[in-house]
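Exam prep: given the inputs below (a chain plus magnesium ion), describe the expected output before reading on.
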Amino acid sequence: MAKVKVEYACTACGFSSPKWLGKCPDCGQWGSLVEEVAAAETKYRVASEGFPASKPVCLTEVTESASERARCGIAEFDRVMGGGVVPSSATLIGGDPGIGKSTVLLQVASGLAREGRPVLYVSGEESEAQVKLRASRLGVRGEGIFLLAETSVERVIAATSELSPFVLIVDSIQTMFTSDLPGAPGSVGQVRECAGRLVFYGKKAGVSVFLVGHVTKEGTIAGPRVLEHLVDTVLYFEGEKGHPYRILKAVKNRFGSTNEIGVFEMRATGLSEVADPSGLFLSERSGETSGTIVFPAVEGTRPLLVEVQALASQSFLAIPRRTTLGADTNRVVLLCAILEKKAGLSLYNQDIFVNVVGGISIDETAADLPLLCAVAGSYKDQVIPSGTAAFGEVGLGGEVRAVPMAESRLNEATKMGFTRVLLPASNALRLSAEFPLTLVPVHHVREALAQVGKK
Ligand SMILES: Nc1ncnc2c1ncn2[C@@H]1O[C@H](COP(=O)(O)OP(=O)(O)OP(=O)(O)O)[C@@H](O)[C@H]1O
Ligand SMILES: [Mg+2]
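Solution:
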């Protein structure tokens, strides 16, 4: 029996130390060192064991495989992946408990299997019967999908070698363990090692690997940060409590844009795609309230109309509140300062609440103008006509600045039946097409506020 000693590993960078430290000397993060059990002498095997040694290859001789992406038939998923699953790639998918990670992967597996690409679904959390129960509920028939309830990474790799599927799904990486390390499953060392082996195996054997990752209280994937570096693509599956919508986001993608989002609706029969998310997010809009306006956002390559709401109410606090959901609080504070200084609104005694409807977060600067219009609309108790949308960046001088992809935003607004759009004057000058909309070019926030309430 190997002698066991305790060491401390950094959850951010994997640095290990024989004693606990408040700050990681390697990456500088505070409070990131956690206790690990390490064997005094580990019989460590490198992940490359069993494969022939790699030789340097000239770049011109490397064959391209980018064009062979496998589509799973779920358009929202394929788009987030950058156009389909890249062979031999590794993808990590994280999300809150019960959000639907296993559901979406089973549906993806079904789509791939239908295209004649076999899938091995390894579940460390559920038995084969439980997975079968879910599959029946989702209407997944199961030809070409192989199940394995296993937590030993060595046995998973052995089963994969035997079956040689196109995709290996591991649900979840926190349940996998290797007997070469003494830590418990889910510990930093085990998660890093198991993920490293599976990813390496996938690349060498030509199997695409999907790893499900649990998330921590803070919302990041549990385990070492290196996990996100190890894989090619990191997806987050998110949703608001009480809402059936689920949003799949790529936060890292070596083969595609990271701004893409896929929108799904959770039903008893599984996740169904929402091909028209703008319609969904605007469906419960009531026309006659002050302080709301629609913002044509762009997520990746896709425009998406979202409703921005603000509420300004008299504050009885020494420091009035600035609370935001789905928008950056600092940005809202800055916009309030601009409204005070450049548009003469006295917000110093107002609590301001901002909300982006549908659990969407917006981080584009193009949201400045609609945020500002919503705050001013609520402060003045002015109803912005329901057919009005706005986008544009606002500078500290109160000037409205151009933003990218103006045409896509206008197209989406036209498609959803909007009649008036406030946009930066410099964008309006450079439009390459005609739009059946009343375009209101604005140079300054004062102009925007004067225009916004008009029919
Ligand atoms: N019969 C049902 N009808 C409607 N929705 C259901 C039904 N059964 C499950 N669900 C939905 O599926 C979700 C569970 O999905 P799933 O098991 O894929 O989540 P998960 O992210 O894999 O969770 P975990 O982290 O626990 O593995 C539930 O939260 C619920 O919303
Ligand atoms: Mg699950």
